[in-house]
Amino acid sequence: MVAMFSEKLQNISRTYLGIGVLDLKKYLLLLGLASTVFLLVSCGQVFNKGQLNNVGLLLDGTIHDETWGKGAYLGALEIKEEHNISVLTRENVSTIRETEEHVKDMKRQGVNLVFGHGSEFGKYFDQLNEAYPDMHFVYFNGNTFDQNITSIHFDGYEMGYFAGVLSAKVTQTNEIGIISAFENQPEVQGFFEGVKDTDPRVNLHLRSVFDWYDQQRALLLFKDLLADNIDIVYPAGDGFNIPIILEAEKHDIYSIGYVSEQNEVAPESVITSTIQDLEKIYVNIANQFDQGELPSGVIHYGFDNEYIYLGEYGDTVSDEVKEEVDAAINRYLESGSLKN
Length: 340
Known about the structure:
Elements: H1 2-6, E1 13-16, E2 19-22, H2 25-31, E3 38-41, E4 54-59, H3 68-83, E5 87-90, H4 96-108, E6 111-117, H5 121-128, E7 136-140, E8 149-154, H6 157-170, E9 175-180, H7 186-198, E10 203-208, H8 215-226, E11 232-236, H9 241-250, E12 254-259, E13 270-276, H10 278-290, E14 297-301, E15 308-310, H11 319-335
Parallel strand pairs: 4-5, 4-6, 6-7, 7-8, 8-14, 9-10, 9-11, 11-12, 12-13
Antiparallel strand pairs: 1-2, 3-14, 13-15
Membrane topology: Lipid-anchor
GO cellular component, one term: plasma membrane
Keywords: Cell membrane, Lipoprotein, Membrane, Signal
């Protein structure tokens, strides 16, 4: 079994319109495992040390970004509160050397569950995990795993899709802008498809920052989109979505929140948010580990109205549109199909 884990899961993907999607079909057929909450792929082994001691949190950014980093930090605090343990947080971790130094320090302080909040931590954990067999490492959106490494995947396509459905029903100019961190984000592809499936006449204008946090470039791209007469913008990036939402409000343009509930940022202009409930996910992972039930492998969280979902509708969204979008979401949850 150990030999099986040492063979890393690499390049097992197919491409749909430029977006990598992990091909789970053969594993589901073998395991007969399906869940509306998450899909799990592993070699059938659970890292059963359990009994959560303390928790470590490594971030490639900051806890003050109001989205990705903040959600992780709030999740860690929730774990601390629920399990009455210590949480050690380290921000702006960007190298294997920094990661190893922090992990070594965390080990000394009794940490046995380490979260690396980003895909880069997969390769870092892969290089040092064997030296820490009594610690379990969890990171996000990668395919590398080992006996004590788990990767958490967020399947963002559907949350983007339903935000696109809503946007197509709300737009008056039939011009919608997207400012993404990167072009191949699943939620961006889903947003595009949701708009087009709802109203093919709507034009979408995509601009990419090629960075999760570059606010200056994102604001320049937004200024560029104003010339396209957009009346809705979807800023899909951790570090720049709040500045874009605030700038959109100044120009009477609707916006979509990203990762966390952002209706309160601009109640009159945010029409919904595409939410990955990091607090709940962090607590769920910690509980699994504490019970000796956290698997090694790749865990997928999909759109389920619990962990990944659409946020509150803005005050300007009509009751009719709310009912139509809710009906589309319910059909998907019941049938698994996005199409009518």
